[in-house]
Amino acid sequence: xxxxxxxxxxxxxxxxxxxxxxxxxxxxxxxxxxxxxxxxxxxxxxxxxxxxxxxxxxxxxxxxxxxxxxxxxxxxxxxxxxxxxxxxxxxxxxxxxxxxxxxxxxxxxxxxxxxxxxxxxxxxxxxxxxxxxxxxxxxxxxxxxxxxxxxxxxxxxxxxxxxxxxxxxxxxxxxxxxxxxxxxxxxxxxxxxxxxxxxxxxxxxxxxxxxxxxxxxxxxxxxxxxxxxxxxxxxxxxxxxxxxxxxxxxxxxxxxxxxxxxxxxxxxxxxxxxxxxxxxxxxxxxxxxxxxxxxxxxxxxxxxxxxxxxxxxxxxxxxxxxxxxxxxxxxxxxxxxxxxxxxxxxxxxxxxxxxxxxxxxxxxxxxxxxxxxxxxxxxxx
Length: 381
Description:
Blueprint: E1 3-9, E2 12-18, E3 24-27, H1 34-42, E4 73-81, E5 84-92, E6 104-108, E7 111-112, E8 125-128, H2 140-154, H3 157-182, H4 187-219, E9 229-234, H5 236-243, H6 246-259, H7 261-267, E10 278-283, E11 288-289, H8 295-316, E12 322-326, H9 334-347, E13 351-355, E14 369-374, E15 377-380
Parallel strand pairs: 3-13, 3-14, 8-12, 12-13
Antiparallel strand pairs: 1-2, 1-4, 4-5, 5-6, 6-7, 9-10, 10-11, 14-15
């Protein structure tokens, strides 16, 4: 990435950061705006960013706005890709007239894109934040988002499939609620929605399953002191995919959705789909599931998974993801910290690292580019 520009994003009114391909280090006191820079970068790929924020939540607050955040914000960057430099941008288009619905816009080389999924065709990013230290004990949705983020780097169309499934799922739920309230619904419409859910849902599950297989190829023998890691996707869809071809799994899911209409209408849920899958990770060196490991071991497992993903992309792709590592290095011992820095350098990925103590990053030396963040200003250190 050559350049990052923020406008009315979180604490930044306007900020431009010029970089080269070396790792970027942002240091400064707590609350200065370091994580906000990483969050802005995370909005340059599909999704709701590393904080899972609503569009209005990241609008810069100004004195006297009385909580009114119905204003626009923007994040733009110039990204180096195998086909040359590409300008990408995203932001919130704040409507001036009711109803004030949130709307996110995306531009690629100045041209409006149809949706967020277009970003995945230009840039990929993976991140680790302090909040993710609880990933293995959190609800399955957080782990699914984590694996989906890794899939995007290999298959940009995955973002569209996830979106298509969720859109059809919402429409089916509305139709079932109407049927329950009014006693009538269009069976052909329901069948069409369930057909879409089956096709897209099985494709999502298959992509996640394939990603786990790829990660296991390189994650079982990581370089340096990080543990060997194994990952497995589990759930009904994964079971069906293990029994036969994807088309048979689609048929089974379609039949299950049709049979569950009454139950789903009464419960307000969707009985079957990729939203029921889970991600199970195992510490190979100790033979333990991740959720039974210590806090330090779980952090090492997360880093091992992210590094395995980058090694896979280095092996199979011409481009590497951005690594967004928020307050990660400070919580590693010297041995693991040096191993992380060495692996980043060996892979050649551009990493953005944050911390309060600049001495933690001294081993990077001239291989890094250093910035000081104070009072929502980013300055060369």
